[in-house]
Amino acid sequence: MSGVRSVTSNQDSIHKDLEKTVRKYARTQYMRPIALHTQEAFEQAREKICSWAGQSDIATIPVVLDSGCGTGESTVHLARRFPDCAVLGIDKSEIRIGKSGDPSHAGPEGIPANAFWIRAELLDFWRLVLDNRWDVRYHAVFYPNPWPKQSECTRRFHMHPIFPAMMQLAPVTELRTNWEIYAQEFCSAANVLREESGTVPELAGLCRLQAALSAYAPDNAETAFERKYAAAGQPLWRVIVRR
After folding, report:
1. Which of 67, 19, 34, 72 lies closest to 222, judged by CA?
2. What does the pLDDT look like over 218-242, one tens digit per residue?
3. With 119 labelled, which of 43, 75, 110, 140 sits at a CA distance of 20 to 30 A?
4. What angle do CA 187, 81, 171 make, to 5 degrees?
5. Can you name the residues that pair with 82 across neighbouring β-strands?
């Protein structure tokens, strides 16, 4: 398929500062103030999920997060895969999230009742989920922006101060990407964080963190990116992190 570019970078292996960066952020607390619009979106998401479950305490409701869900196609697939969970697709793009719930994503079965979408900034939303003790069972992070230039490395989730919080959200986190180095870095960063958990009390829950990287060939694409990359013959990669 033409027009689908593979990732190009001036980096040909795991970033030289990855371990140092992950260790630094494991020992510090991310203190950026949470934006009001994300706080409001968080409350809206809580209300939607509680209404679906018929409960007032969201801490008792099993949830799946679909972070960076784009137009929400992956959220539909996850909602079918986890029918007993509220599946929440989150994206910061007003244009993309405005297309969520499109019947074309659902086929004849329709949009599952347990699928929800919200527009929010991921980093703030994750911290709110963690602080409010949501019962997140699975966290999907499919095809995030890889920020492939070496100078952009601290914008990658695993080299950002948010990474320790991100790894505490769910017992299973699944990353998919079409850039092998990103997958390698994500896997390595999780292992470094596990090592740090022995010296940082706040990370004690990550002492059994295990990350596994593998090539990924989907039988049925679950996102538009995945469909385009697979059709173009690009290799895809998956990292599954368990704690």
Report:
1. 72
2. 989 999 899 999 889 999 999 999 9
3. 110
4. 40
5. none
- Partner residues linked to 240 by β-bridges: 174, 212
Region of 224 on the Ramachandran plot (φ > 0 left; ψ -120 to 50 alpha; else beta): alpha
Run of H or E residues at 65: strand 62-67
> Cα(153)–Cα(16) distance, rounded to whole angstroms?
10
Spatial neighbors of 56 by CB under 8 A, at least 6 apart, are 50
Q: Nearest-CA neighbor of 178 among 222, 240, 212, 226?
A: 226
pTM: 0.94
Ordered structural domains, the chain, with CATH: 18-242 (3.40.50.150)
* CB contact burial 57-83 (16+ within 10 A = b; e otherwise): ebeebbbbbbbbbbbbbbbbbbbeebe
